[in-house]
Design brief:
It is built from 15 helices and seven strands. The longest helix is centred in the last third of the chain and has 28 residues. It has a seven-stranded parallel beta sheet, with helices on both faces. Helices cover 54% and strands 11% of the residues. It is globular. It has 355 residues and is α/β, with parallel strands linked by helices. It starts with 15 loop residues before the first helix and ends with a helix. Strand 6, helix 11 and strand 7 form a beta-alpha-beta unit. It has three domains: 65 residues, Single alpha-helices involved in coiled-coils or other helix-helix interfaces; 209 residues, 3-Layer(aba) Sandwich (Rossmann fold), CATH 3.40.50; 51 residues, no CATH class. The protein binds guanosine-5'-diphosphate. Guanosine-5'-diphosphate (GDP) binds next to helix 5.
Amino acid sequence: MSSDKNKKPKSNDGSLKNTKTVAKLIQKRKTINPNQLFDQLVKGDRIALAKAITVIESARLEDQAIAQNLISKSLKKTIKSFRIGITGPPGVGKSTFIEAIGKHILKDRKKLAVLTIDPSSQVSKGSVLGDKTRMQDLSANKKVFIRPSAAGETLGGVARKTRETITLCEAAGYDTIIIETVGVGQSEIAVHSMVDAFCLLLMPGGGDELQGIKRGVVEMADLIAINKADEDRMEMAKKSRAAFKNAIHLYPPNENGWDTKVLTCSGLNNKGIDEFWKELQSYYTHNIKTSYLKKRRTSQSKFWLHETIINHLKNSFYQNPQVAKVLADIENNVIEGKISPFQAAEKLFDSIREE
Ligand code: GDP
């Protein structure tokens, strides 16, 4: 009688052979070939683009190396893209507006990517923007790519990933990129620093602060739309439009000589949307003619370079074991008035330099 000892285990149960096969499969699935992924992405494969973005969002070290490889390759594939930021308070009609304007955009341009930065997801791990079924028609369109931001990240992290995602989308041939965010926190400032045109949607009636928009956001806007200007609200919308136009005149003139436009529209009824898109295109053309587009993008790249350096320095400072050891004591000394905050900071830096 032959012993069972040397028999190969059956493969259709939880046996050793099966486990090895599964492990191999998992290993295979995890190994990403960046060249292959990039080739597919450039050909316009939306699944490859989604995968590449997931790699960028991943915190795993091996993924980060692949991500940098993909970004370097993508940066060489420059196309004439138009990056549009859209912000406004929750419920102002951003997704309805994007759904409506997206159809007009696709008449003039090749492909549209819609990226959303949802600051609420960082706090609640749920999302104001993502929970709803949004932009259903656009989602079904093969020329459109929609992607929400990664949840549970710091705003700085999300901003970086969004900028890298823009680079990937452009390499994939998306010549128009919309970046949408709720305009009630810091995320709209980050978005402003990565787009060619920054649009603010507001509702008829009530100033910006009443609508929960932070001071300064109106000033940053290149185009403002009083949305939900339905027929029965047209009068109120016109009044709001006049009020915002007046308010804008109090700000210093725009660097590029552009007069910020305030329009009325209704995303739901597709009214004034074509006009808005035409105005956006005029703005883009104006910036190309005056070379302002190039200037704006250059200063944005510089801004993100220095932002990143500052963040790295800050992290490495606070993570330094010597700083961690003495920080609480120094803080107490400052609170008790034994040492000034400035002397304390110098002392902390000196303690690192001495290391
Ligand atoms: P978001 O939170 O800014 O993305 O807003 P949504 O696009 O989800 O719209 C919020 C609500 O406003 C929804 O019930 C929409 O149907 C409605 N809405 C959007 N646009 C308009 C509009 O132009 N007129 C009216 N009356 N309602 C609108």
